[in-house]
Amino acid sequence: MKSGSTIKELIEEWFAFEAPAIIPRDIGYELSESSALALLGPRRAGKTYFMFWISRDLMRKGWPRESIVYMNFEDVRLVSLKPGDFSTFLKAVNELSHPHKGRVVLLLDEVQNLQEWGRWVRTLLDRRRYYVILTGSSSKLRASEISTELRGRYIDRLVLPFSFREFLRARGFEAKYLGAPERMGELLSQMRDYVTKGGLPEVVLKPELAKDIVRTYKQTIMYRDVVERHKIRDVSSFETFLELVEESFGKYLSVSRLSNYFKSLGIAKSKKTLVNYLKFLEECFYVIPVRRFAFSRRASIQQPRKIYPVDTAYFRRIELGSMMESVVAVELMRRGADFFYYKDIEYEVDFVIEQPRELVQVTYASSFDEIDRREIRALLKARDALGKGKLKVITWDLEDSVEKEGIKIELIPLWKWLLEGQ
Fold it and tell me: From CA 3, how far away is CA 1, in angstroms rounded?
């Protein structure tokens, strides 16, 4: 089959395609004739389904179905597509589509499989006839490569696992009538599931398969997104490194200590290699390494990272306080916040958020006395050291506002903090 008839076949299939039920995402998007919209995020976070949702949303706003064309370049029928087929692609699109106000929306999935894909997209943008939305596999396409290929001609949107609001939507639960104790108990039960089981869409929608799904995701991330992509030859050492990272979720990870640990095993691994391993895991959106706050960037870089998984489904233990911290870290990432941890000899603060500065503790403690003794005292000391910042304690279900040493401290339940920020 020639490339032209193949492309036409795929376009016709798309026009006939009925997407399964799609959970609406709370992710904004915009169409630009001069910039592509690049959807970034971890494996299986719902990037393709977000494309489908955009298609439905556009149709709801008046775009004809035939003005939106989806193409999955993972399809085996497109494996031989080359730059020379670009004209054929344009002919097929314009023969079968019906532009809306002179424009066609192109949804390009797994675009990294196209040879010279960056030139394809830039050329499409140059023609001023197309809105381009694209995704790429985290095993083959990094954010830095999108920047290089598109030369600044893109807007990115981060697609992470379900937020708590999206999780409740998928569960069919509305956060209403919370003044009723039973209703509030039901909400807290939902939050416990979210904190302990995570927000990966397939895990949320198929909880009976959660264990197998998570195991498969982890194996794919390890072998395709890291080992295969970066051509790691010493797979055994990387497996050991990954185990150590996972054991450090919610804790501090020191590359120097890891290097010494490998030496104790008789394995020579330079700090540079271990730093690269951690960078690979960050690039494929498996971990969120949080730097220590310091007034000097150099001092911050030299300190251990606090490590969180991109979803609590990847936790290997059940410690609700650490898992709550992880949920907060992912949410801060979702909100685009610039955040750190702060640690002194005697105390530490879970998160220091910049612009505007906010010092945040996360705790599962159920009594105000315990929160006052541990969390609030650390916040006050950190504020003295840093000079400014609002103080907040994210709790499981305690809500209050207190004043200490003339400074107001807000206590807010995790569920409320998650829902208010979305």
Answer: 7
